[in-house]
Each structure stands twice: as structure tokens, then as C-alpha cells.
Write a structure and sequence with these properties.
Blueprint (H helix, E strand, L loop, with lengths): L4 E4 L24 E4 L3 E6 L15 H8 L6 E2 L8 E7 L2 H13 L3 E8 L7 E11 L4 E5 L9 E15 L2 E10 L6 H9 L23 E9 L6 E5 L12 H10 L3
Parallel strand pairs: 1-12, 5-11
Antiparallel strand pairs: 2-3, 3-5, 4-5, 6-10, 6-11, 7-8, 7-9, 9-10, 11-12
Length: 263
């Protein structure tokens, strides 16, 4: 099998392919393009920006990119919640989308997140397995018992590791590295909240707010890894941590993580 290629998005201070905004909004910046070839497109979605069109006609990643790529049909490979920042992968052909979707089903498409939670988990690492059900009309999900006969429940799996802990203004905060094994609605947010460790600023799932920035929670899709649909070479893309609070409260942690190359 061909070797892997790793791309650190911190190498690019500006988008490689500037994207013009569809609507004028000081809150929404053009979506930075991290990588692009004839088959795939990898971008860094800002927190607060939708991934795809919604009923309200909100600005979104897909419309912005489609406007700058009028000759390329674009297909979402996966999605991120509006308040989550991070890497999003799109395909330029239906065949590439199918190939990447199959990789997800086989566990070959890796997604790793950074999350800040409060309070910290009692254990330094672990794996969470829960049955989730999406609540109609509420845009939320909840954990249900395995024996609960509720319809449409889906099993969700993730693993986490505590990368650092601090006490700030009397609160116990932890920096987690989270890897998804499944892709369920609000999965990381629901499972960490059920553990008793909600993501900071995620008021929908029980967190207190540490900053006054609406539309953002302390969750980042920091790394994606998959096989290129044509070459079958493994590609790894990684973003640096956000340079804003509450992430910068963990300055000593980010220095350690940067030195070791870990998330």
C-alpha cells in the first residue's frame, strides 16, 4: 500500500483558494481550503457556519464552495454541527463520495476531535458505548437504556483520552482527545454530557458558558485521515487548536501537545 501523506493546516495562514462570501456578514468569514485536487476538497469550517443549506437560507459551506467551484459538482462526505469548528471533507465526483462513504462503514475513515469539558472525567481515558435516539422537532438527541424499546435508536461509540486538566475560576476543566467510531447526531456532545462532562459553552447539553461568543462550543474536528479515492494513499489532515478562549486557558497543555505532536 502507498505510504501516507500528512498535512498540517497551520502551514496555511490564508486559504489556498480564496472563496468569496455569498452574503455579507461580519460573523462569517470565507471558508479556508486546506487541500484540493481533482477528486477531493478539504476545508476548515469556522464555528457558527452551517455545513449545508437549511430552511432559513443561512450562509453555509456547501453554497460558498459551490459558488467558487461552478464547474465542479460538490458532494458532502460527512457533516459537522453548526457550532463546531474543524475539518470537513467534500468529494468532486459521486464515485469519490461513494468510495469515502464506504471507508467510513469499514472504519478506514478516521475522525479525531478536541473537546474542552467541565468537570473533567474521573478516568484518564475510556470508551463510551450508548444507544442514542434523536428527538423529533427539537434538534437534540438523548441516551436511552439498551433495553428501552424506543424506535430508531442507534448505538454510538467513541473513545477519549484526557490530554490535560486545569482549575480556572474554581472550575475543573479538561482537554480531551476524542475519536469517533460511529457518526450519530450530536454524538460527542450527547455522550460526554451523559458521562457528566458536558462540552464547554454547549448550553443545549447542560454546560455553563465561559465566554460570550454565540454559536460556538469548545469542540473542534481536529484531524481526518482516509485513503485517497484514486491513489489509495493515506492522507492525514490536522488543524492547530483554536487561538481563543477557552482553548488558550490551556496554554501549558498546548505547548506540550505541540512538542509531542499529539492532539
Amino acid at each position: 500500500m502507498p505510504g501516507s501523506l500528512s498535512f498540517d493546516a497551520s502551514f496555511w495562514d490564508q486559504p489556498r483558494s480564496p472563496v468569496r462570501q455569498k452574503r455579507s456578514s461580519p460573523a462569517q468569514l470565507p471558508v479556508p481550503v486546506v487541500f484540493e485536487d481533482e477528486t477531493i476538497l478539504v476545508v476548515a469550517k469556522p464555528a457558527g457556519l452551517a455545513v449545508q443549506p437549511d430552511k432559513a437560507g443561512s450562509d453555509n459551506v456547501l453554497d460558498q464552495l459551490q459558488e467558487s467551484h461552478p464547474r465542479d459538482p460538490l458532494f458532502l462526505v460527512h457533516r459537522l454541527d453548526r457550532p463546531v469548528a474543524g475539518l470537513v471533507v467534500l468529494a468532486k465526483t459521486a464515485a469519490a463520495q461513494t468510495a469515502l462513504t464506504r471507508q467510513m462503514a469499514r472504519g478506514e475513515f478516521r475522525k479525531v476531535y478536541r473537546a474542552l469539558v467541565s468537570p473533567a472525567p474521573q478516568q484518564p481515558s475510556g470508551q463510551l458505548v450508548n444507544d442514542l435516539v434523536k428527538l423529533p422537532g427539537q434538534n437534540t438527541s438523548r441516551v436511552v437504556a439498551a433495553q428501552d424499546p424506543v424506535k430508531d435508536k442507534k448505538t454510538a461509540r467513541l473513545s477519549f483520552q484526557v490530554a490535560g486538566r486545569i482549575t480556572w475560576q474554581g472550575q475543573d476543566l479538561a482537554w480531551l482527545t476524542v475519536e469517533l467510531m460511529t457518526g450519530r447526531h450530536h454524538q460527542i456532545r450527547v455522550q460526554l454530557s451523559h458521562l457528566g462532562c458536558p462540552i464547554i459553552n454547549d448550553g443545549k447539553y447542560g454546560s455553563q458558558f465561559l465566554e460570550a461568543k454565540p454559536g460556538q462550543i469548545a469542540l473542534q474536528a481536529a484531524q481526518v485521515s482516509f485513503l485517497h479515492p484514486l491513489s489509495q494513499q493515506r492522507l492525514i489532515f490536522q488543524l492547530p487548536p483554536p487561538d481563543q478562549e477557552p482553548w488558550t486557558l490551556f496554554k501549558s497543555v498546548t505547548e506540550v501537545l505541540g512538542a509531542t505532536g499529539k492532539l
